[in-house]
Structure formats: C-alpha cells, structure tokens
Amino acid sequence: MAEIIPFKALRYDPDQVKLEDVLTQPYDKITPEMQAKYYERSPHNLVRIILGKTGETDTDAFNTYTRAKEYFHDWRSSGILRQDAEPGIYAYSQTFTVLGTRDLAERRGLIALGRIHDYADGVVFRHEQTLAKPRADRLNLLRATQAHFGQIFMLYSDAQGDVEALLKAKTDEDPDTSVLDEYETLHRVWRIHDPALIHAVQQRMRDKKLLIADGHHRYETALTYRNERRAQTGSADTNAPYEFVMMTMVPMESRGLVILPTHRIVHGLPAFDRERMLEAAERFFEIDRIDLRTESRSATTLLGEAGTNGTAFVAVTRQGPYLMRAKKGVVQDALEHLPNRQRDLDVVQLHRIMLERVLGISEEAIRDQQHVRYERDASEAISWVRQGANVAFLMNPAKIEQVRDIAFAGEVLPQKSTDFYPKLLSGLTIYALE
Predict the structure, then answer these.
(1) Does the domain spanning 4-258+421-432 belong to CATH 2.40.240.20?
(2) CA distance 138 to 50
C-alpha cells in the first residue's frame, strides 16, 4: 500500500555553515520571536525560505515567496546546499528529555519519499481538519520554490520492529549529521544508499497504512500541487517528482512517541460569567473546586489521576481551578450525533459541550481561532487567565490508540487535538522537484 522511494536530498554543507544556525522548527511552530532569532543566527537560516518576513513594499512580483525562490536558487548555486550524489533513504533519530520529567527518550524514524495519495485511496489517513489560509500559504511557497523543506511526520504500525531492525547496523555507526536544537533535542541522520537495504525496507513498508501525525496542511498542499501539475502537463507519468512528498515515518509502537496535551484559553467573551458557566456545565460534568492551599498535588497531577478512570479536564478561572469529570450517560446522550469512538474523548467533550454549548462559541469561530487560543505549557495557560483571559482549560494528552482508531475509521478530531513531541527539524533534508 505505502510506496516509498530513495531520493537525492539537498543538505546544508557543514563546511560552510553551522547546522545549529540554519535548521529550524517547522514553520507553524515558529513564533515571531523565534523568527527574529533565526534571522539573526545566519544569513542562510532556512526561516528565510519557509517563513520569511513580509515587507511594507511587497508586491505580487516581490514578496516572501519570490524571495524564498531567490534564496533557494542562490544557496544551491553557491554550494550552501549540496545534493547527494546517489539516491538514498535516511535513518533519523531524535533523543530528548520528555517535558515535565527527567526521562530520556529516543524516537527513530525513516526519511524517504512517499507516494502522494488521495485520502479515499485508503493508504494515507488524516486525524485533523485543515484550514484554507495555511494551505494557500504553503501552496504559494511550493509553487515558487518547487521544493519541500520539511518532512511530513507519518506513523505506521510495526509491532515487531522489522524496519528498525533492518536499519540497526547502519545506526550503530557514526551519523552523517548530528545537531542539537534549541529544545536540547539531539537530531542524528544516517544516509543509506545500499540498494539491497533500500529494497528490503521498501518491501517491509508495502503493506503499511500511513497516518499523518504532523504536517496535514503540507500534505494537502502537496496533493493539490500534484493535481495542478497533472492538469498542466497532461502527463500520465506516475513517477514524476510531484507525485511524491518527503516523509519521516515512525512506528506507532515506538517508546519515544510522545503526545503532549494542548491546553485551551478562552478570551474576549464580553458576557462571560464564571457562575453561569459552572451552573450550565454542571448538567454534563461532576465539578469539584480544587483548593491548592490544602491540596499538596498540583491541578495537572489531579487531572492526570482523574484521566485514568474517565474523561476529565480542569477549568482555571481567576477565582481558582475546577476539576470537571464527565457524567458519562448525560455526555453520551449529548453527543449522540457523533460516532461512539469520539464520545469518550476529552477534547471532543470540551469542544462540543463546554466551548460550543456552554460558552456559545461556534464551531466555525473555534476553527478560525476566535476567542480560543492554544498553549502547550500549563503554567503559561494559567498565566493568560491572570492577564485577563476568561478561562483556561487544562487537558490530558490524547492516546495514540485513540488517534489511530479515529483516523483509520475516516474520522477527524478537533484541531490541535495532538501535539507530537519533539518536532522534526526542517532543513535536515530537502526534496527539490526540479
């Protein structure tokens, strides 16, 4: 089902640049502050291509996309970016400390080109909806540069570890690339160009289904671009460069597969009233005030404990936090229009009941991030309430089994339901279509 092929990756020349100065987090994780720092680090930092600064004098003929095209052309011409001489696949390891703990973990994957499929083909599956504005942005960049600068993060099932076993001998060697990012994650890459080994990996992957973990917008952009090029060329060449996209594929069973919670902050509701919110929510949830003056455990610890026996989240108001646990029968009835597998998800209950029914924020407004913002760090989410936000909702992370079952059933979760950590570095390998 999944078809992967080797490619001649473009990679930064470490003799000309310091890799720590030119590689970046994925474009959608780059804040304005990070963008500014990346610009300062190096004139060859990839941010200039994947998330360039806009200018007051930008026009249709001179803008972030045309500048990205110029940077890409110049860096290739000057040898800042060098293309591998032979097609290869790439073993990829990320070693990191799990946030909030002292536990060291490693996540291993495989970088290769994967054939682009429509979702209806039953090979590639999504678990999130995408938004029109980011899709249009990424499509404009792809049209201008005709290249992919970051990998789509894909998951597949490999309970026996067959693929990783094939790569083990190679990854016992010194890596071709080793770089420490700003979050103290060690990224290592090994180039594999042995045709026999590549063929063995391809054979192991042929029966796999692929689940998009991160990169939904970029995957759908690649799909749209493929369809555009097919229409333009009128070609039936199924092996044309635009028929493939760069992927990092990681086993779902990996111990290093970490999903973090994404907390919600509700702000700007002029008629917000804490008492009315709690009164309306009481129909659906058991609500307990958390008194941190007498409770030795933190709100997030209590939330984690409550999540082992059911769905739960914490509502943080200026008057204090409240633990909310679903009244299962009532919630099930309220969500009867949804598939059974979604009704027991914390994030679905939060969005469909608390945000939409209790607080009156429409699904469209949530999708457009009106009145709702997202925060990975619980303390930061709480600080937004101190600064004037209406309420913050602290969440438990989704389980990979839940994400898998929903995606393979052809369903989607609310946006920002998952936060896979750490992110894949952009610029480790680059796939040029031309």
Answers:
(1) no
(2) 9
